[in-house]
């Protein structure tokens, strides 16, 4: 018997386990469907390339065929281990724009404005640059400058400046707009996941129980109150655990709504379709799915300054191994997306609407397709897409992945934003700083110039950049799943605390904001004791 059961040891779940178990009078159980985070590929920053391929550490989801993307099924990698996706992402530390959180508050979500969340961002981090109005020290999450800032990344920043974009050395400071190097969630040249930051230092607490390889199959209810969960352990045996205070779902934008549906909470028609008894009708579960769609412009690179798949790269690889294992330095500490930024496709816009990630290699199909030789890729994603999709069930079996229908480009404005983004990418990559480095444009390709041709390129090539949110949205409208205290509407003893509660996508990478959702949830829970 526990006071609190947390389902999911990902970016938010590890935060909750840390903060809630700091109360010695609270018995906390943390359940994770994946294994321990012992794989060396997790902790080696450049290992994210291999995490994409892992079947043991990655859910490896697929979307439904996308009508606006030539009926392609898109690959959605999600972390399946302690730390969740923070154990497999590119470690970029961004918070989004202050407007994003003020917008949440304007929608009626009290306590979620930028000014109210900034202290939690500061409390959560240890900023290696030192404290400031926007950054804190002494927190669990180490935020550092990259130890590897490669030549191509530096060229990109010079090129973007030549193209007229401002430089910015802190995207989480007074202004977000501009280009520069990203800060990363790393410590001593290794990944600092949510598990490493929040969980490992406190996992010996006697009031904290951590269970891995535990696939939660349903929330157990007594009438309208959550009283525990049922899960399948590593051997497939059914286990049930009880919570005297509450159950907190922290499985992310995919697993949390899926679990609610499996438990009989969601749209009645969807539950009845799969023969699941209705515990509580809640139309918004699985709705409001949003994601950042990404498009890439890629070139061959002539000076071999990038990271290449070639025999000629072997000496640099051997040196990189020595640098890493002796000093935790060198290109193996790279997150591959070292530089980027936030820009406006139209100077008249009030906010940056495009984010760049520059990778000093030819990145295609999430790195699953290998291009031999040297090259670089400039990613651009639409920060605030208007398209909305949904998540549903494929079956009532918890082993089956859910049905994912992001409905990309269903709003026509999103395609036009990406069209403008491709043009800005080409503008930067054509700047003088790339002279001497710039080889053949691989995609879209030099022959692809007219707008209709570029739109067709986007439909053939656009992919996720791994930021699904919104499927258990916070609010007070008919599709809201949780209130601003993160309590599931119409039920007691049940909260959701992860990226699924975001009413709208934030303008940036979603990992740091998801950890702060965990911080906020813990604060709300502890205030009720």
Class inferred from helices and paired strands: alpha/beta
Global outline:
globular
Radius of gyration: 22 Å
**N→C terminal distance:** 18 Å
Number of strands: 25
Helices, by number, come to 13
* Mean pLDDT score: 96
Low-confidence stretches: none
How does the major sheet shape up? 7 strands, mixed
Indicate the percent of residues in helices.
Answer: 10-25%
User: What percentage of the residues does DSSP assign to strands (E)?
Assistant: 15-25%
Describe the structure.
There is one protein chain. It contains 13 helices and 25 strands. The mean pLDDT is 96. It is globular, with a radius of gyration of 22 Å. 25% of the residues lie in helices and 21% in strands. The strands form 7 sheets. Strands 1, 2, 11, 12, 13, 14 and 25 form a 7-stranded mixed sheet that branches.
Topology:
Blueprint: E1 2-7, H1 13-21, E2 28-31, H2 40-43, H3 48-51, E3 61-62, E4 75-76, H4 98-106, H5 114-124, E5 125-127, E6 141-145, H6 151-162, E7 178-181, E8 183-184, E9 186-187, E10 190-191, H7 194-199, E11 208-211, E12 215-222, E13 225-232, E14 238-249, H8 252-262, E15 265-266, H9 268-273, E16 280-281, E17 293-301, H10 314-327, E18 339-343, E19 354-359, E20 375-382, E21 390-392, E22 403-405, H11 412-429, E23 438-443, H12 451-461, E24 463-464, E25 494-496, H13 511-526
Helix pairs in contact: 1-13, 5-13, 11-12
